[in-house]
Amino acid sequence: MINISRAAGFVLAAFVFSAGGSAQNVVLRTDASALVLDAKKGKKLKHVYYGGPLADADIASLHAAQGKGRNAYPDYGMLTAPESAIAARHADGDMTLDLRVDSVFDQTIDGATVKTVRLRDNVYPFTVDVNYHLYPDDDIIETWTTVSHNENGDVDLTRFASSYLPVRSSDGWLLSFYGNHCNEAREECRAIPRGMTVIKNRDGVRNTHYAHPEVMISLDGKPRENDGRVIGAALEYTGNYKLRLDYENDNVYHFFAGINEDDSPYTLSAGEILATPRVAYTYSSQGLGGASRNYHSWARKHKIANAHRERKILLNSWEGVYFDINEEGMKGMMEDIAAMGGELFVMDDGWFGVEYPRNDDKQGLGDWKVNPRKLPHGIKGLLSTAKKNKIGFGIWIEPEMVNERSELAMAHPDWIWKSPNRERTYGRGGQQMNLDMANPQVQDFVFNVVDTLLTNYPDIDYIKWDANNAGRSHGSQYLAADRQNHVYIDYHKGLENVLRRIRAKYPDVTIQACAGGGGRVNYGLLPYFDEFWTSDNTDALQRVFLQWGTSYFYPAIAMACHVSSAKTPHTQRVLPPKFRCDVAMSGRMGLEMQPKNMTDFEKKVCRQAIADYKIIRPVVQHGDLYRLLSPYDDRGAASLMYVAPAKERAVFYWYKLRSFSHDNLPRVPMAGLDADRTYRVTELNRIDTKPLSFEGKTFSGRFLMDNGLEMPAENRVDGQDREEYSSRVLLLQAID
Ligand code: DGJ
After folding, report:
1. 228 in ligand 1 pocket by Cβ < 6 Å?
2. For the whole model, what pTM was predicted?
3. Which residue puts its alpha carbon closest to atom 6 of ligand 1?
4. Are the C-beta atoms of residues 443 and 497 closer than 8 Å to each other?
């Protein structure tokens, strides 16, 4: 065994060895997975294996078992037929790459040990580092590349995927997510067709309204929730992306993920380093549920700001008053949420703009000064009302954006994202534009929006950071003529610079990523944010689907779920208060309505739900998710549960999604409990006059997981049955 690892005590148990003189394996192990590469110096880097854990005997014989190795990072030019991960035009115009293994070493990046395989072109001074960061407990392997060269002039990268993974299966299925504003994260599951499947984004600014940069690939046919081999892939990037899955005739699904290079070839100067975004892979033999739990646990430990602390229950002003912000109104909302047991109030859009007051979406963006006509006592006055009511205070901003009618646009026309030679283009309200985040002056401005607010008002507890515009035309007034192709990439580099500065100075403030609802739900952005606004659609029925789709990759602690008014603004559907609360209680619970318009019954239900949510909050926000009955299965109901890590507590949710007479609804076996423990069942957020037949009764975990509990199809209050949209939340507590 030749250990050529440079870092002593590489805790990830990665090692390099020689077997029979024919191979030099880089073995990357997590607790329940392994990735093996063949890295012979001077040869192509080969992918040998990605799957479940390997014994040393398996590793020694692996090459014999695996058949032909595949290039682990296919390059374009010398073998042009297969799809490639990287393609370049060299300084002299040559279009070929031939990357060979140069070295394998450990390095420290951002405080973590990273295994790097360095590839060098065998003719040109062109280098690609393929990097691996392991998270053993969560079975996550992150991989990405760093590209550099030392040629006599610029090199154009026309393709520069972060990662390539060959997946061997003869019955591969793909779970992916598509949607729209107000309909994000719709799940789509299909057998992978021959040819190329492409999932991509070209918005420029937001990247999860229409498709999502995450997929799960099942190796064993249609994926199942609790068993079967699944590989998950999440591209950690908030800009334009492209995932490609190429499947021809070789029973290998060729997966590529990275920045979308369409309209964005990257011109790399000599000595410059391009680091591509990371892809986080997981492997699970416990189906989609196992893969999701890996991502959730990893995200809570490494990828979501402040995930160790529980999230507050809040009221956000948007759907309650929209732009109609005024001091009396805000005061009333603060009193109302405090009286219901809430812990935080967030003032949304409409509070700013002096010359150009923000009364609608047509003006004022960019002018982050309090409108004194709306708020005569300013933010200070609001903070003191919040304090009196013993709740926190939060505020909405959209700092990357500007309206045509704003002091900012007049003062800094050169800061606007547009082609230097063309007219401005507008988005929201026919007036909204993006600031050019590639410009360091703009980055300073955006940083200062937050810095000024938090310096002047250190008691601000929460920021809702919105972004409601696509990058509508190609161009930057800041970038040089020969770097206009960088506009989409440099926008996000600029954004990340700002976010890094904000987090360095304000690590504790809670920040929500919002982008016209769920337009920025991705692991590229989340490390700087505590949570995301899942969707502008607060219709609880559609939320069951939306939150379900989002849950494959994102944990409940990050998923903002708000109770809407009875008639939900986007769909105009009227839903009972218990159903609305029960759905919001499965994520980070909040309210999104005008409490003044609530009936006494609605207030009572919400007050009860808030109190009960406080009991289950640790389990929801830090427990393990088990999806039990999918709304996509169209069986009339949906069900999920969270189980505390030590399995002493769990919360079970059941939602009736349609109301057909004598419908045959399934009984749902539970999951994730300790079979040998006994659990007491208590209904939460109860509105029924009579308790459930199993209220207070005890059952073994085994029984609950084999059999489940029969849910009555209706909620019954004072002899009145409500069959439509009935729902239940049950707390299970181990009594031993
Ligand atoms: C879009 C967001 O998704 C909404 O929640 C709200 O903040 C509006 N923007 C405000 O303009």
Report:
1. no
2. 0.96
3. 318
4. yes
